[in-house]
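Progress report, Aim 2. The chain analyzed during this reporting quarter is listed below.
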Amino acid sequence: MSDIVEGLLISGVGAGAVFGTLAILMFVMMGVERVFRSDGVAVEEAVAAEGEEARAGEGLEDTVEVAAIALALASYMKERGKELGGRPIAVGGVHYQVEVGDLSLSPVAVVVNGESHWA
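Predicted structure tokens for the chain:
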């Protein structure tokens, strides 16, 4: 047998072994998933409970988050040649009165409902 044919044979056997092993591994993983699969209700309940916990924790950093959003919005609008001005913004259905200081200075003063923040 020539060296080229022997090399192709070894390469073919090696590639076949690799893909065969991967196919077996894929079927094993599919079988394990079917064995341990739940009906999905537990996942939906966990997501719903997490949402309720997040709503319960709202307000602790509420104005800090609104200040960050207002600063990002003011920066975005400035790039487009507009200003945020003294308009109220709505976040999560709640309206906030926001004032953003001069964006060219650092740190930038952001006032949310009379509460000052620096960024």
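The first strand starts at residue 88 and ends at 91. The two ends are 75 Å apart (CA to CA). These observations will guide the mutagenesis work planned for the next reporting period.
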